[in-house]
Amino acid sequence: MLETHWLAVITGGALGAILRAKIYELFTLTKNVHLYPLPTLFVNLIGSLIIGISWHLLIEKSLLSSSWKIFIMTGFTGAFTTFSTFSLDIFRLLQNKNFLLAISYITINVIFCLLATTLGYYSSRWLFK
């Protein structure tokens, strides 16, 4: 990877992480516990919107350099939310009419990631009593 690409990932990642933290901060300022899952949903929706726009403009239309693609798609949306990449993967499978693979990918990701989270949680509780 070119040095400019590394810089693009680092800069985009920092900005994405900061924006995500700020959004979570705004939601927590309300002190409304019923809003608990909304910051994540909001970030995932915005990140998915950004990566969809980016895919069209940066990949299909090649409107900006590869550094911008890496800055936005890998760095920014990667730090802002990895769900956006998951959504793009599914979109591309559906776009290519790989419906069964798309459904399988969704199912496997959700189930196995939830299992990994559960395993991590309970392993940690067991190891660090």
Can you walk through the features of this model?
The structure is a single chain. With 129 residues, the chain is mainly α. The protein has a domain at 3-81. The protein is built from five helices and no strands. It has helices spanning 3-29, 38-60, 66-80, 83-95, 99-127. Helix 1 packs antiparallel against helix 2, helix 1 runs parallel beside helix 3 and helix 2 packs antiparallel against helix 3. It is globular and about 50 Å long.
Overall residue-averaged pLDDT value: 92
| Low-pLDDT windows of residues | none
The helix-strand sequence is HHHHH
Largest sheet: number of strands, sense, barrel closure: none
Number of helices: 5
Find the count of extended strands (DSSP E, 2+ residues). Answer: 0
How much of the sequence lies in strands comes to under 5%
Structural class, judged by helices and strands?
A: mainly alpha
Tell me the radius of gyration: 17 Å
**Global outline:** globular
Fraction of helical residues: over 70%
